[in-house]
Amino acid sequence: MSIVYTPCPFCALQCGVTIKQTTKGQRIVGNPHDPISEGHLCRKGLASLEVLNHTQRIEAPLLRSTRTQPLTATSWTTALDAVAERLRLIKKNWGPDSIAVYGSGALTNETAYILGKFARLALGTREIDYNGRFCMSSAAKAYVTMLGLDRPTSTFEDIRQAETLLIVGSNLSDAHPMAMRAIQHAKTHGATIIVIDPRRTRLAKSADYHLAIRPGTDGFLAWAMMHSIIQQNLVNHDFVTNRTLGFEEMAKQARHYSPHVVSLLTGISPKIIETISRLFAVSTRSMLLHGRGMEQYQHGVEAVSAFLNVVLVTGQIGRPGTGAVMLTGQANGQGGRELGQKSDQLPGSRPITDPIHRQAIARVWGVDPQTIPPAGRFTASEFFPAIDRGDIKALMVVGANPLLSAPDTSAVRHAVKNLEFLVVIDPILTETAQEADVVIPAGGFGVAEGTITNVEARIVPVLPLSSHLRPVNAWQDWQVFQELAKRLDSAQYFPYQTTREIFEEMQKATEGAPSDYSGTSWESIMSGQIAHWPITKDSPLGTPRLYETAFAFSDGRARFSTLVPGPATELTNSEYPFHLITGRLGAHYNSGAQTRFMPTLKKTPTSTLFIHPKTARQLAISDGSPVRVTNSHGTSLTLTAHITQDIRQDTVFVSMHNELDKAINHLIPLGPLSLSGMPEFKHTVVSLSPLQSLYEEVTVVEEVDLGITL
Ligand SMILES: Nc1nc2c(c(=O)[nH]1)N[C@H]1C(S)=C(S)[C@@H](COP(=O)(O)OP(=O)(O)OC[C@H]3O[C@@H](n4cnc5c(=O)[nH]c(N)nc54)[C@H](O)[C@@H]3O)O[C@H]1N2
Ligand SMILES: Nc1nc2c(c(=O)[nH]1)N[C@H]1C(S)=C(S)[C@@H](COP(=O)(O)OP(=O)(O)OC[C@H]3O[C@@H](n4cnc5c(=O)[nH]c(N)nc54)[C@H](O)[C@@H]3O)O[C@H]1N2
Ligand code: SF4
Ligand SMILES: [Mo]
């Protein structure tokens, strides 16, 4: 019998795992044929069985009649009836758009597709968006505008072949650990690694160049690289002439960003800027890789666009070992955003405002195009203020924990309490689920069947584990929506008997669309056929590397961007002298709803403030002591100091995995959103004060200078 592998429940690499029976019991092992992990797993992957017998696992639907009552277990029928009845009533009283659906990159492609269809046809609401708004939306906007498609241009095979890797705002070593194999492979073949991060991550330690940039200034750095490339005569004129549009105008703008001026903003010396620009341009195969570190800023779209300009001007795209890779975060961050969960898109990444695309989906759904609601008024970031204003009365959260992960935790908490109705569908009783009126158990890892589109835009099969491992009573998520649709008089749109039927309808819906899945088959995917979209009838094996001959525009040309870079929303000053940056730890995952309760992973503390020894000494902060961190709106959190030399002196770092009372988003305001609707998650400015007596002995770890000009 062949071994059944399913993807790990965590990051977007989606390394294959299976259960192995050993003399010591069951153990998770990796898939040796997996193209990225080659059978290895990181600590989260190795702990993934713990998701199945999680202490917060929801075993039966939960319901309460009023918010003052506790949630109590109930039958599926009672819970589904209650959800349908409440939604029907709210729709009748306030109209369909008073119901908002908050989806997720944790869902399979089939669930994401069904959720979009459910929102638009069964509920009839225009208000659907998903947690990837907080994740990939800035990168997506830049890629679609400049290259044509919302997808990394290349695969990990290209990373292995690269000669120069420019890695911006990504902590691969903790956030995509198995990707380090590809980096290591490139290094053993002599590749030069350049890492841009205010912190010295393990990835940065292994790099040839680590630029510990001042937070929020990457966009300026990229423009200075452009300035330097033009000055050093390193423009790839053939590529620019034959494959792009808008060079002249862009080059004119680059004049303003001399490395000298930009060094004052970024803290990176002009010489280093010139060196890395030359390296990237002259190497035969250069690649850009980037994570949320430069994207989750008000000017994140501008920063990504400026780096894509550098890729285009040097012609480092469309060949082996070249291209630009936005490192998608969540398991199905890629498929999740393509299949109709975005407020402005229909399945296949089809713009919802485009009549041709509306017509195409209407045909597959068997409805009049008029029936499909228009674009949503709100992105996920805007749902909570809209609830407070009374525009949204009911919220359905499917696979996310916004109480912790959305900006301005107190405001989100307040909004959630103001809702007339909150329903949460999740395998785990998250902090958000604890506030709900009804909680429905979802399947998730070990239960779910279907497909996921991973970090390489590769469609991978998702399979249930053997029945004795699965939580009892768990359904496929799509069955929940099917049952709800029946109760909302929309059964005709959800006639499925199997997940395969949904996959096949989804294929029809994406045929001819930007994210085209039509040319493969359920059998091929389930049997492990490697397939990166677009997969059309003419290219049934898919497209690992994009743009070899043309970009995805009718004239085949990429567009240079002239978007102007901008500073972070909040700037340090004498009262708030420190940059607070946020992100991930290797042992935890996102809001921590899963990992904070998993025996192996919970050993790593979350509420830690990473601070440089010199800063700690100046402020009389000792390692392990409590520190009050206050933002410019006067909100404070008390966190535990972790003194480390691996961070800039003017910067502190806190993870996003903390429990509710220490959630870092207490300190992150909603603020002005980026062009993509992304809040400035990565950054705010803070003051720090120790909570222990100044006279206690201060322990300071060995000081090593990062060599940064501040
Ligand atoms: N262990 C673990 N792995 C995960 C996740 C997790 O929660 N835990 N989540 C998954 C998800 S959803 C995502 S989106 C990815 C995120 O993956 P990454 O984007 O790699 O992770 P982050 O820690 O959010 O941010 C990356 C780095 O950005 C740096 N940074 C902060 N500000 C700046 C800046 O102004 N400029 C630059 N250049 N860098 C800056 C931080 O120091 C940090 O090291 O990880 C995925 N994988
Ligand atoms: N300050 C700050 N805030 C941030 C970030 C940051 O770097 N800094 N990062 C942002 C980013 S990049 C992201 S992606 C978000 C992530 O934050 P959230 O959107 O809150 O994501 P998770 O904590 O991963 O929650 C996913 C939920 O999905 C559930 N789940 C898993 N599989 C399934 C399934 O098959 N079906 C259903 N129904 N549920 C399932 C899990 O149990 C879990 O509760 O946070 C954002 N918030
Ligand atoms: S690298 Fe990502 S997908 Fe692979 S085992 Fe680790 S968390 Fe899971
Ligand atoms: Mo993310």
Report what the structure shows.
The structure is a single chain. The chain has 710 residues and is an alpha/beta fold. The strands form 7 sheets. Strands 5-4-18-17-16-6-7 form a 7-stranded mixed sheet, sandwiched between helices. It has a 6-stranded mixed β-barrel with strand order 22-26-23-25-24-27. A 5-stranded parallel sheet has the order 10-9-8-12-13, sandwiched between helices. Strand 6, helix 3 and strand 7 form a beta-alpha-beta unit. Helix 4 (137-146) crosses helix 15, helix 9 (218-231) crosses helix 13 and helix 12 (259-266) packs across helix 13 (270-282). The relative contact order is 0.16. The mean pLDDT is 95. The site of one ligand MGD has 38 residues, from helix 19, strand 17 and strand 22.
How would you summarize what this structure contains?
The protein is built from 24 helices and 27 strands. It has a 7-stranded mixed beta sheet with strand order 5-4-18-17-16-6-7, with helices on both faces. It has a 6-stranded mixed barrel with strand order 22-26-23-25-24-27. It has a 5-stranded parallel beta sheet with strand order 10-9-8-12-13, with helices on both faces.
